[in-house]
């Protein structure tokens, strides 16, 4: 019987000083902890581990699911996030990826559409359900909380539920049949 706890790796998209990414990532982690059943790891390009290929490889290999928290810069996703993604190859395969994006009017959704292509090319499984924030700084309180009735809470719960469904299903599938068996 496999361990029922699934391993969630949270990817930080921004490596800027005073990034807003930390506020949104902390909110997402609180949701995952409230849901339960996840052990949570972090891939953060602002840390030495986040720029260490061997550490990234190990964290991606150990993960069952990925949650990407990314801002949008000039209609794209940050280079620091791409550097982390490109540092690893095989361990992304047959694992689900959900996205939380934020930015100005476009809510970071252009960045997410680009990331869907990137993760699909790595044989990961990008999910439809996610969360996006327009002008995120205006929506969170100074203490990092989001008002209780904000629609993002419901979207986050649904995204985590779907992520867990795929993470459990794909973990079983990878155990039954190695993903690269046909190669
Ligand atoms: C140079 C620059 C370009 C930006 N381009 C976009 C954009 O194309 N679309 C968008 O939604 N937000 C855009 N933004 C807003 C950022 O996504 C927003 O400031 C976000 O909070 C940055 O994330 P961070 O603080 O975690 O690094 C831009 C901001 C800057 C400074």
From TrEMBL:
Keyword Flavoprotein: yes
Cofactor requirement: FMN
Domain NADPH-dependent FMN reductase-like per the UniProt entry, residue ranges: 7-136
Entry keyword set: Flavoprotein, FMN
GO molecular function, one term: FMN binding
GO cellular component: cytosol
Transmembrane segments: none
Gene3D superfamilies cross-referenced by the UniProt entry: 3.40.50.360
UniProt-listed InterPro entries: Flavoprotein-like_sf, FMN_Rdtase-like_dom, NAD(P)H-dep_reductase
Superkingdom: Bacteria
Keyword presence, Transcription: no
This protein's name: NAD(P)H-dependent FMN reductase
Organism: Pseudoxanthomonas taiwanensis J19
Source species taxonomy: Bacteria, Pseudomonadati, Pseudomonadota, Gammaproteobacteria, Lysobacterales
